[in-house]
Design brief:
With 273 residues, the protein is mainly α. It has 14 helices and two strands, in the order H-H-H-H-H-E-E-H-H-H-H-H-H-H-H-H. The protein has one domain. Helix 2 runs antiparallel to helix 9. The model has no long low-confidence stretch (mean pLDDT 92).
Length: 273
């Protein structure tokens, strides 16, 4: 028996082991921040402005530990995330287009579900675009696995969409709902994400901005005032096709999440004994 939250045979494992999913990280972040309560929590309770991409990587490292690591490390990563959530509460600035002046709390079930949903939705979008398409049955299995992840983050069973079809309907409803409205806090944080300060990251900035804008739903792209036209769309499709062709040629350290590589090596060793 594997002492892990998820089996190596699960679809969540098979999809989330791909480092290419990080290309959807900007999309997930901007979708989360489009909820003014999430944006207020991030702005008021983190060093996001100083190190937005570092925060994304640390968040993903914790997620990788929960999905791929054995026992204690996985549980510790989950406890750290829940502990951080326990300190995040406050008031949404009155200048926001929705929820202005209202209280927020990171353990708010609707906020937890939205953040979780953006990660799952962005993972599916990024995998299908940069790795390979998923069959309907594979996508349903992936979503079924993701429901366990939602439960680990203390999201009520009754609130989690019961099926992939219900999840798709939830995402469409949220993206059309007044609750999702890109306000000044989100726009300010988005600039920190799209134009990172470390000079080492600047050469990749134009490609990162192109991919992030290309992956976003049109309503949010407009909300963040990200210019888009036929030429940008063509360049985005060319970049995605190029990444998809190069991916099979990349060595495992550049393609596979480090936690997944380590876990798979451990499992192969056990099988060989």
């Amino acid at each position: 028996m594997e002492d892990r939250f998820f089996s190596s045979q699960s679809k969540l494992w098979q999809v989330n082991r791909e480092l290419a999913l990080l290309l959807g990280g900007g999309r997930a972040l901007l979708m989360q921040l489009a909820h003014p309560k999430v944006a207020a929590g991030v702005a008021q309770h983190s060093n996001f402005r100083d190190d937005p991409l570092g925060r994304l990587y640390r968040t993903m490292s914790a997620m990788w530990s929960i999905v791929f690591d054995q026992g204690a490390p996985a549980r510790a990563a989950l406890e750290r995330i829940n502990s951080v959530h326990g300190r995040v509460h406050g008031t949404v600035p009155a200048t926001e287009p929705s929820y202005g002046g209202m209280a927020y709390d990171a353990f708010d079930q609707e906020l937890l579900l939205w953040v979780h949903a953006t990660l799952i939705d962005s993972a599916i979008v990024a995998y299908e675009l940069f790795v390979k398409p998923l069959r309907a049955e594979e996508k349903a299995r992936y979503y079924a696995d993701s429901k366990k992840l939602a439960q680990l983050f203390q999201i009520s069973d009754g609130l989690i969409p019961a099926s992939l079809k219900a999840f798709t309907a939830y995402m469409a409803w949220m993206l059309d709902a007044p609750a999702i409205a890109v306000g000044p806090t989100a726009q300010s944080l988005a600039r920190d994400i799209l134009y990172p300060q470390p000079w080492l990251l600047r050469p990749a900035g134009p490609l990162f901005r192109l991919i992030t804008a290309g992956l976003l739903p049109e309503r949010l792209r407009q909300g963040y005032e990200l210019a888009w036209n036929n030429r940008r769309e063509k360049n985005f499709r060319l970049a995605a096709a190029g990444i998809r062709r190069l991916l099979p040629l990349m060595p495992p350290p550049l393609r596979i999440v480090p936690n997944a590589r380590r876990a798979e090596q451990q499992l192969r060793f056990k099988l060989s004994r």
